Amino acid sequence: MLTKELQEQIIKQINMEFVSAYLYLGLAAACESLNYRGSARWMRAQAEEEKGHAMRLFEFMVQRNAEVKLLDIPAPSVAPKTLLDVFKLALEHEQKVTASIDRLYGLAFEQRSFSTAHELSWFLKEQIEEEKSVRDIVRTIEMLGDDPAALLDLDGELGERKEEEEEGDEEE
Fold it and tell me: Rounded to an integer, what distance in angstroms lies between the CA atom of residue 12 and that of residue 14?
């Protein structure tokens, strides 16, 4: 049985994952307006992945017979001017998600909810990968500077991302 506090915190994490999906859709729209179609596709794939994360937690709650009360999802407030701005916003957000997962894992462990801690261990690993992926893109864009041809090449590479490759292993 999950404690009320743990249930509430998992619900907040579900919300954060949906907020992440919505943010990535906002960043996809920004990429479209900046004419970086490949990056927009990358952001759309990332939005789908974040929805998958939310649903994984949702299903965990259902399996534990916990009540799920969905929270409001605010509209993302993003207005990046450059591709670098887009990915810096994504990295900043991923760092917030990592901190949230860390806190949730700590609470589960503190409450000796080992099944929850086990479920969250997948998210801990996933967040390391998420941050690294976005950080690598930020560093690459920083190295490319304002070179339009190089940025368009990178954009093309980012557009080759396939959702199924990025979703990762759903089971442990």
Answer: 5
